[in-house]
What does this fold into?
Amino acid sequence: MTKNKLTQKLLVEALGTFLLVFLGAGSIVVSSGFGGGSGQLLLVALAHGLALGIAISIAMGISGGHINPAVTTAMYVTKRIGGRDAVSYIIAQLAGAAVGAILLLLMMPAQYVAGSSLGATTLSPYVGVVQGIAIEAIITFILVISVFGTTVDKRAPKIAGFGVGFTLVALILVAGPLTGAAANPARAFGPELATLNFTNWYVYWIGPLIGGVLAGLLYDKFIMDKNKA
It folds into this structure.
């Protein structure tokens, strides 16, 4: 891969993750400022899903549209990306997430930020660390399966990134109240860095990476048509 092509890939990965954090976490910040309400979870889920769908659609023709270290790791273990490029992708994703969160911190009213923790993913008081890791692993497994099934597999329907985006909507509706439903270490990292609050940060790395790797290996070994991959 030439340096220019890699630079393009890293830029769109950073941009895509920026969009996910800025729009997704931003929806939590704004909705908390207006008092939330019974429809808050649905609105937040839709904002994240649409943001991810747009981000993947922008990036998939250039970088593959990972927008998630767990997806990049799944691509690495299935030999769709090299080790150095995978590390570069993850750094770009974390950088994009950090910029998105820092811009939210700078532009949003302080009371909105305080009331929402800048959209940070947190464990419910009723969910322990091990359970949280398991939940994040399961939802990331589902998310990465949807990535392979809708954007990687050549037999996939031509729906750009919105199949993955709508999967994220469903996952947030199920797991959002439990762990925040990050299913993405970068999505968790941005608000953590901006607020300097890294409580249970490892939950959002261990769970998604386990789920992503298992999903990638399963799809690659047992579902992917090797003649079309």
About this structure: The chain has one domain: 3-223. The longest helix spans residues 3-33.
